[in-house]
Write a structure and sequence with these properties.
By secondary structure, the chain is of the alpha+beta class. The chain is built from eight helices and three strands. Helix 8 links the parallel strand 2 and strand 3.
Length: 169
């Protein structure tokens, strides 16, 4: 569900991020793998997900792609991409942009499926010069605490310089 929502958001926001199929495919992989870290104890799951993706050479990625996918998964919660983080710092600017935008999109998709019960059926975005309105149809009322919304939407608001609003019915 998080993957589906991530790709819907990516497609709806294409006019803001201007990224193509390769970035979309990397987002797909990162969103499918973002919670794999829950199966490993001893480390926050977003960092465990990053480490598992980086170490699993059976995944069908080149090394740079593996790093990008791992960082998209890593940045789906908590801190934002930061030049002090070694793996992120070592990417070129275009790769960093993919990580930033895809991580930001994944944060919102993850928030929309917070209860893991696939409440959101469809979504669309209306983009104005300074706002992004995300409208969802849901199977049941979607209740998201303001502090969770602020945390999850913050990175995308920062990147796009647009305030994000969510309306679900």
């Amino acid at each position: 569900q998080v993957c589906t929502l991530s790709l819907m958001l990516f497609d709806e926001m294409r006019d803001l991020h201007h990224m193509g199929t390769k970035a979309r495919d990397l987002l797909r992989a990162g969103s499918l793998l973002h919670d794999i870290g829950w199966s490993f104890s001893g480390k926050p799951h977003h960092k465990a997900s990053r480490d598992q993706i980086l170490s699993d050479t059976s995944l069908p990625f080149k090394n740079r792609e593996r790093t990008i996918v791992a960082l998209i998964a890593r940045y789906h919660r908590r801190s934002y991409p930061d030049g002090r983080h070694a793996l992120y710092r070592d990417l070129d600017p275009a790769e960093q942009e993919i990580v930033r935008y895809c991580g930001a999109i994944l944060r919102i998709a993850d928030m929309l499926d917070r209860k893991h019960i696939s409440q959101v059926q469809t979504l669309e975005c209306t983009i104005t010069p300074d706002e992004i309105h995300i409208s969802c149809t849901t199977t049941a009322p979607l209740i998201i605490a303001p502090e969770i919304f602020s945390d999850k939407a913050g990175l995308l608001e920062l990147l796009t310089n647009h305030r994000i609003y969510l309306k679900c019915n």
